[in-house]
Prior knowledge:
Strand content: 5-15%
Helix content: 40-55%
CATH class of the largest domain: Alpha Beta
CATH superfamily of the largest domain: NAD(P)-binding Rossmann-like Domain
Structural class: alpha/beta
Radius of gyration: 37 Å
Distance between the termini: 94 Å
Largest sheet: 7 strands, mixed
Strand order of the largest sheet: 7-6-5-8-9-10-11
Number of domains: 4
Number of helices: 29
Amino acid sequence: MHFLKDNNNFLKEAILTTELQNDVYLPTFFRINKEEDEKALKDLLLSAPHIQVFDTIYHQLKDLIKSINPNRVLDDRSIRQAIEAHLNGTDISVYGVWVYYPWLGKVVHILDEQEYITVRTNRNKHKITQEEQDRLAEKKIGVIGLSVGQSVSLTLAIERGFGELRIADFDTLDLTNLNRIRCGVHNVNLKKTVIVAREIAEIDPFLKVVPFHEGITENNLEEFLAGNGKLNLLIDECDSIDIKINCRVKAREMGIPVVMEASDRGTIDIERFDLEPERPILHGSVAHLDISRVKDLKTSEEKLPYMVPISGLETLSPRMKASAIEIMQTITTWPQLSSAVTYGGGITADLSRKILLDSLHVSGRFFIDIDELISDPPKERELQQQATPPLTVDDMDRMSASSSVPDGEPLGSEELELMVTAAGLAPSGGNSQPWKWHYKNNILHLFFDKSCSDAFLDFNDTSSMISLGAAIENLLLTAEKERLEVIWEYASSGFPTHVASFRFKKNKEAPSELSLKLAAQIGNRHTNRKNSSRVLMAPEEMHHLSKVVTDVPGAEIEWVFDVKRQQQIGEIVAETDLMRFFTPEAHWDFIHREMRWTPEEVESRKDGIGVHTLDLGMNDLIGLRLLKDPQAIDFLKKINGGTVFKKVSVTQMATASAIGLVTMPTIANQNFLEGGRAVERLWLAASAYGYQMHPLSVPLAFFYRNIHGKGAGLDRDTSAHLTELRRKFCQIFDTNDEKAEIFLFRLFKASDSEMRTIRKPIKDTLSIGN
């Protein structure tokens, strides 16, 4: 009360007097045909003259007369006569009951219980028959959680769908709750249980409401479910994972059905433990988890494995998915709207009645999605997805015949497979593996299978050329290790489909120490996206890594060690990563062409990036899955969201040992191939030093498309933003639009990734000519 001046003591006293009523939720009944009740009401009104008194008993009696005479048309005179007959000489002022609501400061004169119920439920008939209404009056319902639960509870009370209602919530009302809870601002900071109990009493003071003000705990769960008789139905609307799970475990033991409404897409869960005593809780979605641990879960990372199957990540509405990404960034918690809460309250009350009246027996998760039921026709996404046919053996056989490389010495199948397998371990954009190898007339031919990489970010096939160059380098290193001399050249005809031809001679001189060192890392090299602690690179390491790059004619590398500039690079990377999601074609590629979302998909496709290989924590994996929905992406773009991804990127860059950029002097397909060779040498050498590499290819791909493709496929705002990001990029690196920017990467120290991307079997990449 520090804001009140000393001369405002009267205000302090008034506030304190009001606060004395904060936990009061039961009205007081006065039946003044009894002398003691008449005196008590009189004393109350004399002691508190501010109390308002409402007497509408005559109007209620009119409704009663009409309801018990539905087959008669009554005029005012006949109604008046019927009321007089019904009172049978009783003074109307003492008829019925006077109800005092202390928190309102109001006394209301109403019909007594049975007549009140008769009139109040009259318009339920015959949606609810009298027999059904009587059965419902014997039922006990429990509601845990009083945000959505408030709407459910009030709807149940209005329909008189129970005889006893147990409500549980430990929380008080916040101002933020008033976006979805029908309540007055004067109730802020009151217990939600008190508010709901009061509201029900104001509708029907004869209904029995039992509040559990402390919420549900281990100590009172059994009492809530079975005290004073077992519940006939449990309605779960709580946020706590441990309570959500534990109340179901106990409800199943007791054979109590459970209903949950999620206020998103009209999601309804029904679990008929009364009919299916062995039914797995939450439809088996958490069966793979140790539910005995739920009470000990503290961090969001620990809770997420339980939250995700409960919420149904893939079935959230687009806006809820976008909002989930923004939690703790631009919003503080899961959003809910009054319309959804009110709608959900009605649905839940309706289903509750049907379950209690034994007219609904189903279990499962259901969606009553207004956006799907009533909506404009969806706008067609005009995505120009190319469909290049796969390269066939006949195609390769025909093009191989035109090679000018002289015949080489024959290779054994083991030697051939060893080199092609090593080549197949090269990195490729999205693990597309765009290579095909064809062995004909003792010559090994490399082909570019464009059907593997028709990607938005592979403009003019530059990413594929880099990948093919890396595959060439692996092949050359392996051949040298096996003491095979290689005479090779880039194809003069059929390029870029026919990339290069190789012939081999045996008994070459011993390989160099460097080649052996690099070849030894081919199986170890992998993409690593882990977070790291900053470890400075030794000068001799930087010198050696630079040298393996510049060993490829024309290749150069520039390093960034300054933390501030690394953070600036992180911001550029983050912005372009978001552009990738916000550009429909690029988003489609990421979701459908690049990522593999299940182990089964990985095994069947043998390409792409398995989501399990991304070195991501549970939070980030969930965020990634939320980004699959194009409608969620559209909305995220609309609200300028996704800042969480920027934070991750900036942090990763700032803790890098170095960030590097590999370039070639000019834009040309062969330079991208040669650049790919330089990148693979660099990566293998870094692996030998124990460094991890994280490719940052998205900025370069967008820059290339914006500059050399004149912004093809990009909207005006994206193109303009890329131009500004490009300006910042060129202030960090000594580069220009004429250079071929091959590879941007983060170099850091961390443990190896436990899971690696899969590779196609050699039978899918190597063929033998006729």
